[in-house]
Specification:
alpha/beta; D-Maltodextrin-Binding Protein, domain 2; six-stranded mixed β-sheet; four-stranded mixed β-sheet; 22 helices
Length: 438
Amino acid sequence: MSEDTNSFSRRSLIKGAAVGGLGLAAGSTLAAGSADAASPRRLKGSTVRWTTRGGGATGDKIAKAVNDAFTKKTGAKVIAQQVNSDDFQNNFAQIMQGSPDDAFGWMAGYRSNHFGELGLLADLTREINRLKGSLPTAAIKGATSPVTKKPYIIPTTYYPWALHYRKSMVKEIGMNPEKIDTWDDFIKLMTLTQKKGLVGYSLGAKGGWEAMGTFDILNARINGYKYHIDLLNGRAKWTDAKTKETFKYFAQLIPFMNENVLDISWDGMRDLLLQKKTGAMMMGSWFANDFKAKSQADYDDLWVVPFPEINPKWGRDTIDAPLDGVSVAANGKNVAGGKALAEFWASPEGIKEAIKAGDTNIYVSRSFDTSSYDSFNKQKLAVLGSAQNIMFFLDRDARGDFAGPVVGPAIQSFIKKPSDINKILENVQAQWDALPKN
């Protein structure tokens, strides 16, 4: 997919979803469509296996609500399990080649396209076609492999990867939660928070991927969207002065971080904010469910804003907004059942059950009414809508044999010893140059 096509598709997705509430007849769901669809009659008595990728008790509650509704509609039994998200994605190929569950939550971009092209994920063209009345064209494009022209994931939700903090904590240090606009504002927030004996900026990098969000946004803020995408795809060099400048800003954050950066993942970052032990963190908004599960007051205190401006040339024009959905294992025991369950999760019925169970995610479906959004979800839409350029996240915007095995460890090494940055970036560039050409 060309960069221009990618940029258009992503921007269109945000604009379409920000409008919200376009409506869809409730009949355009599972049983609709072609005669060879996996109808409720054909599914009755079968067993479909489902994997929830992380999410804790809230994730299990949401999965149970949606899967129970699917069982009631079709008569098919759903056996569900929750797995550690990092373990699942790091061992994905092996899992798919073994005895995988039929359907599971997964990620659009390189992670679905690559494994679909290898034949490990089922083609979901038919299911996508039946959902076309509710899925924006841009979301379908974002879920479709540019190589095979087939979708291997049904897109369901997306979220901003942005700066999160508690409004009450920002007010306590004498700052305005609505005015963390510049790098100087950000440094002030972290400094004043740290003076209270707390962590200024919480970060986890245990899995390698968590800190990619901080690198993404710093590089986009300093050098612009195009340079960042060029860097991830070999059109710019990791040894360039521009890339080194990004790491100079990254190094400024390290003194404000928790000491156990390399020992915690995203949930450890979340816990620091949940427990009021940190001033701010850069992460995807999916964790908001956990604040709501703790208490309405904790959820109401949570806030999200675009990462502050660094270079006035670019302002705050770019954001990571990963697109998630449901995929089906090509090697599953019940592929037809898996496809039906995946479609149900993306249908108006499935979305309704997820929201009733406490899901605070933003759904891409046009049937999803945003008029009753709470203030946090309205703010998420505002943050997404303010961006002119949309990134999917480093490990989805770059090839998989580079992002995880090379960039993740490189960022970990940098956090461990920032003074080694030149050597680290030379090694990253050498490993990129050694990759097989696709």
